[in-house]
Amino acid sequence: MAEPVLLNEQPDERRVLRRAAPYLRPHRRALAVAVVVGLADSAALVAVAPLIGRATDALLAGDRGGLLTAAAVLVLLAVLQLGLARAGELLLAKAGENVVRGLREKCAENLASAPLRFLEAHRTGDLLRRTTGEVAALASFVRMHLRNLVSATATLLFTLVVLFGYSWQLALVQLAVFVPLTLLVMRWFQRSAPRAFGGKAAAEATVAATFTETLTVREALQSARGLPGWLRRFDEENAAAVGAARRAIRVENRIDLVGLIEGFALVVLLLVGGWSVSRGATGVGTVVVFVLASRNLFDSFSDISQLVGEVQTARTGLARLLDLLAATGRATGQMPEAARPAGELPLRGELVCEDLGYSYRDGTEVLRGVSLAFPVGDRTGVVGETGSGKTTLSKLLCGLYAPDRGAVRFAGTDLRDIPEEELRRRVVLVPQEVRMVTGTVAANLELVHGTPGRAGMERAVAELGLEEWLRDLGGLDAEVGVRGSRLSAGERQIVGLLRAALADPAVLVLDEATADIDPVTAGRLEHALDGMRGDRTIIVVAHRPATIARLPRVVALDGGRVSEDTGRGTGDAGREAGDAGRAAGTMANTR
Predict the structure, then answer these.
(1) Mean pLDDT (whole number) for 68-94
(2) Does pTM top 0.70 for this prediction?
(3) What is the C-alpha separation between 473 and 444, in angstroms, rounded?
């Protein structure tokens, strides 16, 4: 058995930007323009200190013209800096939002095409947390903090250039006092940050997963009175999440020590600068520049230190997103275009499975050596005891599971070699539980690829002979309730069948479509199946004798093997067998 690809609870955060590079590449021009404008904004801000230093020297020297010139340039610089700051903020926010949007869409695309084995191996809440919570945190970082981070980093670098340009001696004194202590604090933070913030994200994902499962099994918890025990589990996980959040906050609070270091460094600068001026080694304007530029230096360090927590949160979220993208990419087994089969795949073709083997866990095969052929237009029922492998076979035939052994081919091409979009145009599964969205019947039918219009929906209803059912329901604009709650299980199956008719697949697989529904609705569903196009292959997993009797061919599974395959007629012979089967089903229902 091939083990499913699993997500890492705390994925590696090293070289995360390098791994994100492929997703940044489409936006590199917009990002470059935004960064250049941001650098110009920081340069204008840093230039203020030298201008004020020059104005100070002019004032002390009695140079009125120099003072006025410096003041005029300072006013122009302030206006320019204001415009650059606004433009840089907008450009960087727009570029960053586009990057986040691309990640969000890629996550949705990968999850939509991921194998069921991958999805079933993970808790829904964890997947939901990564595709919503992590993306939302990244978007918040882009909107609120990314511009400040770029500006603070650029201001820091430009300020260092100014300080060394005026007096490398004072600059070294300033850095010798400020930088080592600050780096020690930052190192102290970095040593604990990945584990603290990664643990916080993992704990929050666990809480989200348990909450999602609470909604899913709420009826069972209420009827079995298991809610108190479940709530204790939820409380324990919530307490663990709170503890993880507190640890992350304690680590983040270490950054506040940088403020104390700033004050100490400024005191040292004033003492050394005053002593240097008294000896005539340094001018007053230079000390003024250092005091003002040091303010920029401290503010930049302070801004960066305050943003370290936000950066770490964004880094953790990005690592978890990239882990999801990498895992879903491996699970999907997507091939480059060059590896895809050449030539156009026919819209209709024979579906064949050869020597299929499949296991959910090692040592226990659910299917063993299953070989079947379903010609174009074939009508086949698949029967067997519970656990015989019927549902597993239906998912393998649709390409939702990849076989551990053997192959499933459509028109001679392995399903694993067919691009996902092309495969879903040719093979469609209607599961036992059809998923619905809140809204109207039409809104649920629009979920088909291509978004069919009302005329197409009405044609599909007429093709399946469901006009009376739709009229009794209230038409295409009838509300189905929250997730289809106003429809019975059988009516939801009918909506699923209508979706399949709109998709117009070559092969339609129905998994227990008539199970646990009332006889009237089951009869409508069976009648709708009879109305489907003759060149469409239909494979029905069913228990109802009346459903099986309407099909010209029946395949029986026993212990994961084909124990019987009767009525292989196709074409006219198959249709005659189908008429006989329907007649037998009618007589059985009458009796």
Answers:
(1) 85
(2) no
(3) 14
Residue 68 vs residues 48, 50, 55: alpha-carbon distances, Å: 15, 15, 8
Q: Residue written as tokens 């991921």?
A: 114
Average pLDDT of the segment spanning 554-565: 89
Pairing of strands 405-410, 351-361: antiparallel
In this predicted structure, what is the pLDDT of residue 354? 92
* 254 within 8 A of 188, measured Cβ to Cβ: yes
Bridging pattern class, strands 553-558 and 479-481: unpaired
Q: Which residues are CB-contacts of 404 (< 8 A; sequence separation ≥ 6)? A: 1, 2, 357, 358, 359
Question: For 369, phi and psi rounded to 5 degrees?
Answer: 60, 40
Distance CA(110)–CA(332), nearest Å, equals 8
How many residues in total does the chain contain?
A: 591
Cβ(118)–Cβ(3) under 8 Å? Answer: no
Q: Which has the closest alpha carbon to 566: 575, 556, 576? A: 556
- Collapsing DSSP states into helix, strand and coil, what is residue 511? strand
Pairwise CA distance, residues 184 & 196, whole Å: 18
pLDDT band at 97 (very low <50, low <70, confident <90, very high): confident
Q: Running DSSP on this structure, what letter comes out for residue 4? A: P
- What radius of gyration do the chain's Cα atoms show? 34
437 within 8 A of 483, measured Cβ to Cβ: yes
- The single-letter code of the amino acid at 467 is E
Among 133, 117, 93, residue whose Cα is nearest residue 3: 117
pLDDT bracket for residue 340 (50, 70, 90) = very low
Helix (H) or strand (E) holding 42: helix 28-46
Under 8 Å between Cβ of 148 and 303? yes
Q: Following DSSP, what letter does each residue of 176-213 receive, concatenated?
A: HHHHHHHHHHHHHHHHHHHHHHHHHHHHHHHHHHHHHH
CA distance 325 to 135: 13
Given a contact cutoff of 8 angstroms between Cβ atoms, the answer to whether 348 and 535 are in contact is: yes
Tokens of 30: 């917009």
Interatomic CA distance for residues 175 and 186, integer angstroms = 15
Q: Are strands 379-384 and 537-541 parallel, antiparallel or unpaired?
A: parallel
Alpha-carbon distance of 576 to 194, in angstroms, equals 69
Q: Are 129 and 204 in contact (CB under 8 A)?
A: yes
| Cα 408 to Cα 402: distance, rounded to the nearest angstrom | 9
- List the structure tokens of 577: 């067998």
